[in-house]
Structures are given as C-alpha cells and as structure tokens.
Design goal:
243 residues; eight-stranded mixed sheet; two-stranded antiparallel sheet; 6 helices
Length: 243
C-alpha cells in the first residue's frame, strides 16, 4: 500500500488500501448544497467543487455517502476511528440529517461531537442561524475504537476558532485544530495511517504529516491537489529548513 499520496480520482472503493489497515479516517464530504453566491476573496468558490456535482438528487447523494462509509468501515482497523464531519441540510421545508444515511451504513456511532463553528456563510431566513456542525465519531460494527485517556476532560462540544477560511482559498476547508483534536482523541500509533476520502486542500494530510503519521487521500479536482501539495511542501520547509 502506497503511503503519503493523494490520488487524483474519486475515493470509490479505495482499492489501493488494504482491509483493516488504517488507523484513522478524518473527512468532510461535500454537503450536497452547492452555494450559488461566490464567497469574497476565495480562489475556488463553492459552486459544485469543480468536477463534483454538489446538487445531486438526495437519494443518489445518500447512496454515495453510504458506499463511502462502507468502504471506510472496510479499511479501518477494529481499533480505528472514523471522524465524519457533516451538517444537516434544510430542503423543501424539511431538515435532512446525516443520520439518515449513517445509520444505513456499515458503521456504528461511537460518540457524537458538536463543532461550534461560531459562524457560517450559509443561512436561510426562515431557519435559526446554523453555527454548528457534527463530528460523528464512527467505528466498525465489530470493533471498539482506541481512545486516548488524556481526552477524558474534553466535552462533546468543541469550540474551535474559525480562521481557516480567511487564509485558505479552498471554498470549504476545516480548521487544522479540528484535525488535531480528532487525532489526539483517536491516539493512533507511531507512523499510523490516516485517510481522507475527500482531501480537498489537504488539511488532514498536513496535520497527519506534522504529527509524524502517514496519509492517503483522494481528490478529483487537480487544482485542489496542487493546493494541498503546496501546503505540504511549505509545512515541510518550515519543519526542515535545510531541505
């Protein structure tokens, strides 16, 4: 299995990854709610994620997400953790919750974390202001996640300062601190393997590399892959100036 690589392809069945070989999966897929209004100062705007259609029929979207979660359950170790970041979507006067498809997947919910973002760039006037997202801590149905006892003091609400969007040209990055917290909670072994099926601008890979872990990612947009590799190169130069 090749490590420290970002594949320019849909994650699909992740055939490159062996069964039960991954310590942690950290990912946030497109939410199927493409934004039509461009965000100021963003090089890439959330109007379909390039090649990815972010306005799929809801049943098609849910089936695709179930397939991805099933693949994550295949590649994760029995002691591994899957952190699946998502947000409910208001559609045609109803709230569509990620639990609709998570509960139909091969994953079990170990615990649920609320990420207090403190802000949002999407809002419908008839709904309350949505400043939170969910971090679903999932595991294999036949497994039990390895969890660090050092995290016993953490609550199920994570207030993570949101400044990533201001300095990251990707339309929907998540904060590096969020990835750090997930890794601290999952407590992967030295040189463990972290996978992100929706790599985007490479935040998961970046933090994994800084933590001394290996990463594998999938991303269909070449521009996002170039951005991720640029961020990784910059981080390595900061860590090892002589390279």
């Amino acid at each position: 299995m090749e490590l420290d690589v970002i594949y320019n392809k849909p994650c699909g069945t992740m055939d490159e990854i062996l069964d039960a070989s991954v310590d942690v999966v950290i990912t946030s897929p497109p939410y199927n709610r493409s934004q039509r209004t461009p965000q100021r100062g963003k090089k890439f705007n959330l109007v379909g994620y390039g090649e990815f259609d972010d306005r799929l029929p809801q049943d098609v979207y849910e089936q695709k997400q179930i397939a991805v979660l099933n693949t994550c359950a295949r590649v994760i170790k029995p002691t591994g953790s899957i952190f699946y970041v998502h947000q409910p979507r208001s559609f045609q006067g109803r709230l569509i919750h990620p639990l609709r498809w998570i509960l139909r997947s091969d994953c079990d919910i170990y615990q649920e974390i609320i990420w207090n973002r403190r802000s949002t760039h999407k809002h419908e006037p008839s709904y309350l202001w949505p400043i939170h997202e969910y971090v679903f801590h999932l595991c294999r149905r036949d497994g039990k996640p390895r969890v660090s006892p050092d995290c016993a003091h953490l609550s199920t609400i994570w207030s993570v300062k949101w400044n990533e969007s201001a300095r990251n040209p990707h339309p929907a990055p998540f904060p590096e601190e969020l990835v750090w917290r997930c890794l601290k909670l999952a407590d992967p072994p030295t040189e463990g393997v972290v996978v992100d099926p929706y790599m985007g601008s490479g935040t998961t890979a970046l933090v994994a590399a800084e933590a001394g872990l290996h990463f594998v990612g999938y991303e269909i947009n070449p521009a996002y892959i170039r951005l991720a590799k640029m961020r990784l190169r910059r981080a390595r130069l900061e860590l090892y100036p002589g390279l």
